[in-house]
Specification:
mainly beta, Elongation Factor Tu (Ef-tu), domain 3, Jelly Rolls, elongated
């Protein structure tokens, strides 16, 4: 091995006090085992490789004096009880370049004046201490190419930094940041939400020529990626913008120390240490109408660090002690202003099932309830919990018929004809809804039918309570649906808005009981409309109108970055001129302005284990972007070697 040891964890260990070297008979490398998937009557296919930890011997001779003090110092540096991997730096004597690996030491042996430390190494690839860099600036036409020379004997993993310098002509020009936070601890998945929280005046923007009257140019970006959105009352003063969102349990705190206008750290209250622990190491927070980003956190001092003030178009301000601090999980933007925009393609699988024209964030109105695309947010789910004769069923359209989507939540208990004899039927059928914000009131209407008698046990809305570690359905007061007044008649029923005894997160409408053994005997209950009032304290909070600031320096990245070996990364992200998007293919991270996780900004042209590997030798990068204006690209990579 042609390597001269330089340092361990930044401590020099080749000086007039120590002489350190790696024995020539101590090769470094991870053992590799191939995993294969067996196939009947075919050769197996490789599923992947498993890399085991490697080892490396490090011999150190103490050449200075006093011996005992230097030995004590050495053992402190290479502490075998230290579980944190430390950096070992060596110099390639043929090139003079320095390389490093990370390792943890074991208890050393001592023989003939040498201490031998066996190092456990998880990644045995040596990486250059000083990375190679290339500037690729002032790209104003597309496509563009860049030649690179990759040294080393294994592929490099580049870090790519993209910085737009000018607004694109004829593209989306305007954007607005939309902060949303979860006030509680529930998880919201594919959740229907009006991002305007009650209405946005788009008519003024249309009149000013900043938005199309059709709204075709009004897009929603979440974490840099366009998502489906549904517009209600476009080109009016109260336009709604519905989307399906996902929110993790909230991280909400208060200021433990008042925040001055130029402070770059946020101290949270002592009572909220656990909240800080759940927050990501970088992200976005909202304090009153100010949006702030942070790049680190300190659990011991309860601080968010690396804070940038007045972000996303907001203005820095002072904030007094105990002011609320709300974690903003997603980077959500409205963008518009492209006069040639075509109608966006909307994903029907995520379209909210609720009536978006009549609904709000505090009240969900249903005229359809479910469809075959069960991924739609807000759907009710039907189930036949019991049926002694296997004749009872749920149904989806009026008077015991079927439709997709379901315009009725229907339930039918049906007697069975066996041979020439009719048999009674006992069943329990339900339509169920789980709601993470919670429900306080229910209003509904529909029809009911009995051929002869109404089921004898129970029917109506119910909710879950936990008793003796079992879920039990309990009828809600005032919500039992009585028997139809007349037999063989579809009889209307109505439940006016009725308060539940407490906020409930799961409700159902159910038909349960027995119909007798009579000719064509059945009982049906169906819900044709339903309105739910949601618990105000559990609904996600969107404070769009308090921080809505028009930004005219938007840059909407839509590009492909590829290498001549065939691998490509597809880039789509809503940025701002002079902001920075960093793709680190070694760490496998994508960050925006050092704070925002922007992993959604990239997709890959193929299924592969490496993001954008640069093989040794002469390589060519190609950058292609529609409607390019001016963008800078910086490429940084480490020379990587399997041996030195």
């Amino acid at each position: 091995m042609n390597a001269l040891v330089v340092s361990w964890n930044d401590h020099l260990i080749n000086t007039n006090e120590y002489h350190a070297f790696i024995p020539i008979d101590s090769p470094l490398g991870n053992t590799v085992q191939t995993r294969a998937v067996q196939r009947e009557n075919q050769f197996p296919v490789m599923a992947g490789k498993v890399f085991a930890a490697g080892t490396l011997a490090l011999d150190i001779e103490i050449t200075g004096r006093p011996f005992s003090s230097l030995r004590e110092q050495l053992f402190g540096w290479l502490n075998p009880y230290d579980t944190t991997p430390r950096k070992l730096v060596v110099m390639d004597q043929s090139s003079g370049e320095q390389f490093y690996i990370y390792a943890t030491p074991n208890i050393p042996s001592y023989e003939r004046g040498l201490f031998t430390f066996v190092l456990d190494v998880m990644d045995s690839v040596w990486k250059a201490v000083v990375p190679a860099t290339e500037e690729w600036h002032d790209l104003t036409t597309s496509p563009q190419t860049k030649a690179l020379t990759i040294e080393g004997n294994t592929f490099a993993r580049p870090k790519i930094t993209l910085t737009p310098r000018a607004v694109k002509g004829g593209q989306y020009r305007y954007r607005y940041f939309v902060p949303i936070y979860n006030p509680g601890e529930q998880l919201f998945l594919n959740y229907p939400f009006d991002l305007t929280n009650g209405g946005w005046d788009t008519s003024t923007l249309v009149t000013a020529g900043k938005m199309l009257a059709s709204g075709d140019d009004l897009l929603v970006y979440i974490d840099g990626r366009p998502v489906s959105r549904w517009l209600v009352r476009m080109n009016q003063s109260n336009t709604l913008v519905w989307a399906a969102i996902r929110l993790s349990p909230g991280c909400n705190s208060t200021l433990g120390v008042a925040l001055t206008i130029d402070a770059t750290e946020i101290t949270l209250s002592a009572a909220d240490s656990a909240t800080l622990g759940r927050m990501p190491t970088s992200g976005i927070v909202k304090i009153q109408s100010e949006i702030l980003t942070y790049t680190g956190k300190n659990l011991y001092t309860r601080k968010l660090t690396g804070v940038s003030r007045g972000q996303r178009g907001s203005t820095a301000a002072t904030h007094v002690l105990s002011t609320a601090v709300n974690w903003i999980e997603h980077d959500i933007w409205f963008v518009h202003g492209y006069t040639l925009a075509e109608p966006p393609v909307l994903d029907s699988a995520t379209e909210p099932i609720i009536d978006m024209t009549a609904s709000t964030n505090t009240s969900w109105v249903y005229s359809i309830f479910a469809d075959e695309l069960t991924t739609r947010g807000g759907v009710w789910r039907d189930a036949v919990l019991a049926s002694t004769r296997k004749t009872s069923e749920s149904y989806t359209a009026t008077q015991h018929t079927e439709n997709d989507p379901a315009t009725e939540m229907g339930m039918a208990i049906v007697a069975k004809l066996k041979g020439s004899s009719w048999q009674n039927e006992t069943a329990e059928i339900m339509w169920r809804l789980d709601h993470p914000a919670g429900i306080t009131h229910i209003a509904a209407s529909g029809y009911r039918y009995r051929h002869l008698t109404w089921p004898t046990v129970e029917s109506g809305f119910g909710f879950t309570v936990l008793k003796s570690k079992k879920l039990k359905w309990t009828k809600a007061a005032g919500m039992t649906i009585a028997s139809p007044a007349s037999a063989e008649t579809w009889d209307p029923w109505t439940l006016t808005s009725t308060a539940l005894a407490a906020t409930k997160y799961t409700i159902r409408v159910a038909l349960k009981g027995t119909v007798g053994a009579h000719d064509s005997n059945k009982a049906c209950l169906e819900v044709g409309s339903c309105t739910l009032t949601l618990a105000a304290g559990g609904i996600p909070v969107a404070s769009i109108m308090s921080v809505l600031v028009e930004q005219t320096d938007g840059y909407f990245l839509d590009a492909i970055l590829g290498v001549d070996t065939g691998e490509e990364i597809i880039l789509k992200y809503s940025m701002k001129v002079n902001d920075v998007l960093v793709i680190d293919t070694d760490a496998r991270t994508v960050t925006y302005n050092s704070a925002t996780n922007a992993s959604a900004a990239i997709t890959f042209s193929s299924v592969r284990s490496e993001w954008l590997p640069l093989e040794p030798g002469s390589r060519t990068l190609t950058y292609t972007e529609d409607t390019i204006s001016d963008i800078d690209i910086d490429v940084e990579w480490q020379i990587r070697k399997l041996t030195i």
